[in-house]
Design a protein that fits this description.
This protein is α/β, with parallel strands linked by helices and 466 residues long. The chain has two domains: 142 residues, no CATH class; 307 residues, 3-Layer(aba) Sandwich (Rossmann fold). Helices cover 42% and strands 15% of the residues. The protein is built from 16 helices and twelve strands. The strands form two sheets. The protein has a ten-stranded mixed beta sheet with strand order 1-2-3-11-12-8-7-4-5-6. A two-stranded antiparallel ribbon has the order 9-10. A hairpin with a 2-residue loop joins β9 and β10. α5 runs antiparallel to α9. The longest helix has 24 residues. The termini are far apart. The structure holds S-adenosylmethionine.
């Protein structure tokens, strides 16, 4: 692949830009100082009573069933939490609070749908051992980077080397074999960007340093991929929207990568300094939320936010990152099928109406079936998979251990699908006792979800194994 011109980048400009951004964020943080009395009762536009909590959630916050909370987060991009976008990610204060409330020092916590491992980062910082399960290799890689402390001096040395390499970029330094091949590559990316990304990846691989540091740089690299592709940056699907008129210019990948490493390195150092020693975090490769290969009664606490039926297609969401990081070359079909909430279902399966045995759910599934048998089967299969997960967690939890599930409702073919209520019914049938349920209002969506499918309240269910 050949391009005739390229635009050299100026490190001074990039450093000045990052500094300005860091200053702005810092000033914003000062303005946003969490009030001393950070728990207040307010009334929303519909006259509903809401308890607003700013920042840290008090461990002993009183909870009554059905309470509605508005949690204002200040930590979404603190430490390693902000290294990479991830759809439907927890805001860190939530798992931090739940972990402290329902477990103790050195306990063992599991998140069976860990996503970007917010639970594991918070468990580690709170000195709880933890396990995170996710079927996505991208998620496990991101998780590993987010919980692995690295040496400050070595990281600074690598940063200097990397910035030098970026300034010295020339397209002819990229050989054909440095460029990965994957479906529709040349539609997703402009040719100048493909060369720049291949160059960055090669520079990371050639760094003379530890694998942990290379992995950290790979996650920084991954975090810019969507923004320098031709796909919409803010959509849960990876799609090119002609109407969006997105422009990506030569040297954007080099510039963004430099910005990202300058922004993320101080956060990684801060995390590394806070990270306690002798606390284990494990991300097993061969597990699934429906098949947790641990012995009975292993865990003290389980905490998760499962996917929704018919909502985010995670493999498709991360497909460009997956290809560039080398986790897949072609079809993602196998991964898609493993997802709870998968849309990969065969016509043979959805021809007939399948029911779950949960009265309320079956009424909705029947209504969906009359409009769209395929969606009805997706919803049915989702609940059956969630039931398997509930049984697995029940088995691996110690007696009196809690399973805290954060789950929203969604709409399928215009029908409100009240996940949380169906999950409560299934959990109670298995033997869990519902200790508490309360709502967390979602004020901002970080990634656009189509209006019809938008979820605006998360329900938090606290289940106890008796
Ligand atoms: C809502 S996200 C979790 C987000 C997470 N709480 C965070 O803070 O980043 C749900 C995750 O479940 C994963 N998932 C889907 N099916 C799964 C399965 N069968 N086993 C384990 N994980 C699965 C998806 O890959 C996705 O990362």
């Amino acid at each position: 692949m050949q391009v005739s011109d390229y635009y050299p980048i100026s490190l001074d400009e990039i450093e000045a830009k990052v500094l300005k951004k860091l200053k702005r964020n810092w000033m914003q943080k000062c303005e946003d100082v969490e009030p001393l009395d950070n728990v207040k009762e307010i009334t929303n536009d519909f006259g509903e009573k809401i308890i607003r909590v700013d920042g840290e959630i008090p461990v002993d916050l009183p909870i009554n069933n059905g309470d509605r909370f508005l949690f204002i987060s200040y930590d979404q991009s603190s430490l390693t939490h902000g290294l990479h976008k991830y759809p439907a990610k927890f805001f860190p204060e939530l798992p931090r609070w739940l972990i402290k409330r329902y477990s103790k020092d050195k306990d063992l916590v599991i998140d069976p749908f860990m996503g970007s491992a917010t639970t594991n980062v918070e468990a580690l910082l709170a000195r709880r051992h933890s396990v995170g399960i996710d079927i996505s290799p991208f998620s496990r890689f991101l998780a590993k980077v987010k919980v692995t402390p690295i040496n400050e001096q070595e990281l600074e040395r690598c940063k200097k080397g990397m910035l030098r390499l970026l300034v010295n970029y020339r397209p002819e330094k990229v050989a054909n074999e440095d460029i990965p091949t994957f479906p529709y590559r040349d539609n997703w990316f402009n040719k100048e960007i493909i060369l720049e990304l291949a160059y960055i990846k090669k520079c990371i691989e050639n760094l003379d340093t530890s694998e942990d540091i290379k992995d950290f740089f790979k996650i920084c690299f991954s975090s810019i991929i969507r923004s320098v592709s031709n796909a919409d940056d803010n959509c849960t699907r990876t799609v090119i929207r002609k109407k969006l008129k997105k422009t990506v210019n030569p040297s954007d990948a080099l510039r963004r990568f430099a910005e990202v490493i300058l922004t993320n390195i101080p956060k990684m150092i801060e995390f590394s300094n806070l990270c306690p020693k002798n606390i284990s975090v494990t991300f097993p490769e061969d597990m699934d939320a429906r098949n947790i290969k641990y012995e009975n009664e292993t865990f003290d606490l389980a905490l998760t936010s499962p996917p929704y039926a018919n909502a985010v297609d995670y493999p498709r969401m991360h497909q460009l990152e997956t290809y560039w990081l080398g986790f897949a070359k072609g079809s993602l079909a196998t991964l898609k099928k493993k997802q709870v909430g998968t849309e990969s279902v065969t016509a043979k399966k959805y021809k007939d109406l399948h029911l779950t045995g949960i009265k309320e759910a079956d009424k909705v599934i029947t209504r969906i079936y009359n409009k769209d048998p395929r969606r009805a089967y997706i919803a049915y299969k989702y609940l059956m998979d969630m039931e398997t997960n509930l049984k697995e967690i029940y088995r691996v939890l110690k007696s009196n251990g809690k399973y805290v599930i954060v789950v929203g409702n969604n709409k399928i073919r215009g029908e409100v699908f009240e996940n949380w209520k169906y999950i409560i019914s299934m959990a109670e049938n298995i033997g869990f006792v519902l200790e508490n349920y309360f709502a967390s209002e979602i004020i901002k969506h970080f990634i656009k979800v189509p209006r019809e499918e938008r979820i605006d309240t998360d329900w938090i269910l606290v289940l106890t194994k008796r």
